[in-house]
Amino acid sequence: MTDMTLTAETTPPAGRSRYHFEVMRRAIDVIDAAGPQARLEDVAAEMGMSAAHFQRVFSDWAGISPKRFAQYLALGHAKSLLQDRFTTLEAAHAAGLSGTGRLHDLFLRWEAMSPGDFARDGAGLDIAWGWFDSPFGPALVTGTARGICGIAFASEAGEDAAFADLTGRWPAAAFTESPGRLAPWVDSAFGQGGGGPTPLVMIGAPFQIKVWEALMRIPSGHVTTYSEIAGAIGHPKAVRAVGTAVGRNPISLLIPCHRALRKSGGLGGYHWGLPVKRAILAWESARADAGVSGG
Fold first, then answer.
1. Which of 64, 202, 257, 267 does the annotation list as catalytic?
2. Which of 33, 239, 254, 257 makes a 20 to 30 Å CA pair with 6?
3. What phi and psi values does residue 139 have, to the nearest 5 degrees?
């Protein structure tokens, strides 16, 4: 069982509602279609908002203007990230980032369940669940008495599918709807609380745990490749298995599987939908470049 602490770099803005993300999601679709030539007035008109109001709402969420954000959404952005913000995990580990890697402007404390606990499919665990607003739409959050064990984004998958996915990972556990039990951790995780520690509980096979711990060493606004992760955990030939473990990460955003890309610069997959992955990567890059450190 491990117990580590991460300091972080940027916090999702406070008080973001589900409505705001739906506005942003629609706007991203419009910006995507228009490309870098998107005009503020045209996008705002598509959204049924004045240009001034739309600019204000969008910039508050993204940290930059809609026009600048369009550049981060371009399909070539992933390749440029690999060129400019590639993180070598072995170097990160040598620099001590395994314990102090940056991830959002909060502290994360995590521990891994024992292989025996994992093998029992969650038997004996009481897992609370609840729906919350997040910077990337409705989020299903699950947690044990020790910390958050799951975050799923439902904007693409749908709430029913997200719920079936997370609860199906630990079929022998007892699930109880109890958002109040999770709210302090969720507020801290999404930058809406007082900045207290956010405890995470990793429930997975030993190989998966190694991969997820490697993901925690990727700084916000940076990326790495599946092959880099494989090398960092001592299994350089297990790139496919690493990809599978990345895809099975149950704690989205906080364990940043969205920062893992193909060596070619392709986005690869994302369990909760590639539009969400693109939005998260663009949002993190934009806020990093704008020097935004909190909401």
1. 257
2. 239
3. -125, 130
